[in-house]
Amino acid sequence: MISANYCAICRGPDTAALVAARERDGQLTKPPGALGRLEEIAFWLAAWTGRPPAVNRPLVAIFAGNHGVTRQGVTPFPASVTAQMVENFAAGGAAINQICVALRPRPQGLRSGARLSDRRYHRGTGSLGA
Predict the structure, then answer these.
(1) Mean pLDDT throughout 50-59?
(2) Which residues, listed in sequence order, are joined to residue 109 by a DSSP beta bridge?
């Protein structure tokens, strides 16, 4: 059990590190918020660790799948596009591949339990609608 004394001695967020992270983000060539939740996580990490966030062992996971709800018009693309996208990832033609070249992680695609390199295609599930 965590005692009240332990919580009392925990330091709070490092506001200087948070300000530095936000200033650095403002210098990047991208619209503010373009990285979505990733930016919020980076700011949080900077504040609570007291230093800029670093990715020392990057891993890229690519998930692709279809389900029957695609037939109800929830996406502008037909389910057949998914297989084409997976092939593009495997061939190195997607934007994420270029990120992998820069960061040097090994992209690991996951599709219905299969590795991207396996490129096994399974039928999608039925509709998720009620």
Answers:
(1) 82
(2) 62
